[in-house]
Fold these 2 entries.
Entry 1:
Amino acid sequence: MEKTIANKSVNINDEGYLTDFSQWDKEVGTEIAKEEDIEMTDKHWEVIDFLQDKHHKEEALSIRGIKKSGVINIKEFYSLFPGGPLKKSTKIAGIPKPKSCI
Amino acid sequence: MKNLVILGAGTSGTMMANHLISRLPKKEWKITIIDQYKTHYYQPGFLFLPFDIYTTKQVKKKGKKFIPKRVRYLQEKIELIEPDKNRVHLEHGETLDYTILIIATGTKIAPEEIEGMKGPKWHKNIFDFYTYEGSKALRDKFREWKGGKLVVHITEMPIKCPVAPLEFAFLADSYFKNKGMRDKVEITFVTPLDGAFTKPKATKALHYLLEEKKIKEVTDFNIERVDFKNNKIIDYADTEVEYDLLVTIPTNMGDALIERSGMGDDLNFVPTDKATLQTLAHENVFAIGDATNLPASKAGSVAHFEAEILTENILRYIDKKPLKEEFDGHANCFIETGNGKALLIDFNYTHEPVEGTFPFPGVGPLNLLKESRMNHMGKMAFRWIYWNMLIKGIHIPFVSATMSEKGKHFEEVK
Ligand SMILES: Cc1cc2nc3c(=O)[nH]c(=O)nc-3n(C[C@H](O)[C@H](O)[C@H](O)COP(=O)(O)OP(=O)(O)OC[C@H]3O[C@@H](n4cnc5c(N)ncnc54)[C@H](O)[C@@H]3O)c2cc1C
């Protein structure tokens, strides 16, 4: 599916996650965050950086990983991305929603 | 003499000992296997023990019975692996040198990871059923329980046999119905995932089961702590779920041995090539089963498929041939749905659980993704197959290590 976000045409899946990370930039991230009612701050971006870095190293993302990230603790993570923090933050980061194996 | 050492004599280690004994030349190779326990547990039986469906005798046997005579079998705790020195240290000081090492130390529960879980109420009104002790204690509790709020809870993924918690909820529904007290028991299923089934396809096909059995669902619940004084579990978003009886699947982790040896990830699982089963850090060290970090199910059936491929790759490694990149994450498991029925699902790294028939395309007799009595018989027969064929490394007829696409209806995972 194609969608225009921050005046850029990007490809997304049915849940609204970017399917091609190369189409991501900070403006796109900011727009997606707005749709989720999140106003991005430096702290938010620090988390996004961390997640993207993990993703590029092909390391699985989990709540536990956040705990050990040294970037923030889980309570802060929840308050920055209320609701489903891992789902929302990965969406803003332009990376796939973490999936867990059956 | 060259040494092949297997760490852990559970499902995977025992299978590897049986496969390799006939494949490695006797004159050149000595095989040693080490486990801390005398008993080999049939873990899938821990699901049935709490409901008095299996007896304690049916789920444990002496490990020695299943280890070939020519294999040296040591009962001791493994203290440390020194992969750079090709050496393993045992608890009482013995050291073993190896040419090839197979890590098969599995995964175990770590309730101490969550505040309040392994406190004064552990095995009083907070139980696990992933250990023999937990499962048996829960059986005794159920026998006298008068009812109330039963919460079945998953702490975090990954866990071994990921469908077991849901099967547990289904079996609890039948159990209390049969006892004539279902109206006194409220069953709630609490999961960190966004649905009770971990694969979207299965969720769609199977959600009706939860409704039919009146099992409530709480999703996206990432537990922060157990408030054992007030009988509540609390998550990071401050959502609370009250219980009278909590049955939890604690965090699953690899053995502390892996951490001590500096060979694991955050959860002490060993980073392993997902197609060849060679560890990423050391070419003469292989890993199999629950101990690996593979993105496949942690299940006995998966370990069974892995064992066939790993055996082949060890022989190739010895012959200095390129390893077969063959393992596709194939898993098939029965899902017990209560009332003498079960489902069967079949999937791999790239395919969602499929509908169709198994193992014979178009014939079955087992139905994939559909509830049936035949599937339940399959699940019960699995115990016999486990003790008599699976861990002895006998090939199970018609079931292949990689997934067959015949007679199944597919959808690729995107
Ligand atoms: C409740 C439940 C239901 C299940 N249902 C199913 C099912 O229906 N179908 C299915 O296919 N699978 C099922 N499973 C999963 C299956 O039992 C496991 O995936 C399988 O046993 C994994 O085998 P393994 O050899 O990798 O690990 P294990 O069988 O756990 O063996 C690991 C061994 O290593 C030993 N060990 C570890 N560390 C040390 C150390 N430091 N020193 C000495 N020894 C050590 C342990 O004592 C243990 O014997 C279920 C599991 C549970 C708990």
Entry 2:
Amino acid sequence: MHAPANPFAGQKSSSRSIERVAFGVCRSATYFILLCAACIFGTILFKGAGTVFQTTAPFINVPFLTQAPETLFVFEHEGVKMKMGDKEFRRFKEEKGLPDIAAESYVYSSGGIFPCIVGTVLLVVGSMFIALFIGISSAIYLNEYSTHGRFVTFIRLAILNLAGVPSIVFGLFGVGLFVAFMPLLQNFDNPAAPTLPVGFGHYLNFSGWNVCLLSGWFTLAFMALPVVITASEESLKAVPMGFREGSLALGATKWQSIRTNVLPYALPGMLTSSILGIARVAGETAPIMFTAAYVVRDKMPWDVERPLDMLFQGVMALPYHIYVVSSKIPQNEYTERVQYGAAFVFLVIVMGIALTSILLRIKMRARYRW
Amino acid sequence: MNPTDTKTMQSATADPDSADAAAPAMIEVENLDFFYGQAQALHDVSIRIPANKVTAFIGPSGCGKSTLLRCFNRMNDLIDVARIDAGRIKIHGVDIHHADVDVIALRRQVGMVFQKSNPFPKSIYENITYGLQIQGVKDRKQLDEVVEKSLRGAALWDEVKDRLHTSGLGLSGGQQQRLCIARAIAVEPSIILMDEPCSALDPIATSKVEELIQQLKTKYTIVIVTHNMQQAGRCSDQTAFFYLGKLIEYSKTEKIFTNPAQKQTEDYITGRFG
Ligand SMILES: Nc1ncnc2c1ncn2[C@@H]1O[C@H](COP(=O)(O)OP(=O)(O)O)[C@@H](O)[C@H]1O
Ligand SMILES: [Mg+2]
């Protein structure tokens, strides 16, 4: 008997080799991305760790995290190459009686990045509250109150478009609206700006809020809004219709029903997705560099006469600081310390926010299930 | 037009039986025309639903039973495209669309149990007290009393009295539906609307709910939508048969099931369509 030919025998054809090529391309593309990410993170983590950590107790470079930036001076003294921060260098000169010793100077390369960390935290927290309040409110309006007409479709379209606006445009928008136009309540009539008297000797002067925390908060918040609104709407949609109908049928008003039977179940999703979105915009330099960030500021945000003044002052911020130290000062062994250190700390902060939101989501998911 | 058609064209009587016409009507619907956008869901429906009786709505799906039911507590207000073009609905003799009628107050009087049981993801206790808490009742003792009374009223007390503070979602399907009934009676309505309350329940849970309906009718007027002919036969006093948005026949349940006046009713009941 003749054995039957194997009906499943492979056929050599061009489609097989194409298959192999396609598979290879897709796979190497993925590996390429992985490699890039590994390079970036690896470099920053490796080089930054040298700044942030140290081999002796307490193992963390505390001054880097708690001091303001200083100028670094590098000079030769009695044949030894020395480097010192600004203050230390001045003291050194006085002690040694060498007022004009020749030294190379590198700005921001000594000291730490404490004011930038503080500024970034302030910016993130403030803009988060504003974005969450405005975003969740409008998501509730769109999803719960509005009738689904052409107007609402138009609003949704506008929100989608907002998400595609480049960050620099948001920055300039922030300058135009918040920095240069928003009104201040003052007890004099500012002749240089449009003014609205409100009585009791007070005037609303449309002279703008200037470069300050408040302007930065609103600019960042507006940038995060599309994400917050979209995420909030999704979370609202995920709450079963039965929760609303059930409470309305018991005689709840619409707001009661939303507050007691929709929001509690939508909030975990809203918060976690929104925080992720805000963490992303918090990393942007463009929106804050004209509205809130200073290259350098000696006073800390809380060094103010009245608490309210805190809102009307600029701050230093990590993303902007990183931009400044990486583009405005030379790259060499003396400046690398602050460049990679700042990037490292910033990465850790952003990852921390993202991680918090993910943990929050896991925890809240377990609590609210239906 | 053939003779059967002519027969079905005539409007069903609004009263279940001339003998009952004297009984006070709890819900009176007069010549109701209801639309979803351009689509008419109810055509010239008139029906008088007597107090303290169980009235069943039967008919093939899509014939407008739920729509009419949801008119009674104005749940259709939530649907943008829904509108009533003509006719009136009176409850306790008051037109429920009158400007003086507060829909919140109406819904407290007209409770509803949904097809898909929808306990809130809160504790059993909080589910029951929800209706009172949104009215601002805070007195712990009063709430405790209402919880016990409502759960007893819904024949659920013995099963859950030891776990009042566990989630309502931990109950079985039948228990969840009775929890929803307990939640509805906690605000002391005069009418309870039930939209296919047993469609997702097994036979044992169904018979428990049906028993409960029999107990409830001494205190409440009950309108129940059902797909299940036997259920309508078992637990209702009068039955309304709807077809394509029209009320075809409305009379005493025994009469509908033994001697229907309309051919369409007979066809539906004997299972020839639907
Ligand atoms: N929200 C709605 N929007 C538009 N049409 C609807 C809506 N709800 C129901 N309908 C339509 O109205 C008709 C009656 O529906 P319904 O009252 O739910 O029927 P039943 O409860 O008898 O099955 C159906 O044709 C259905 O498609
Ligand atoms: Mg239905």
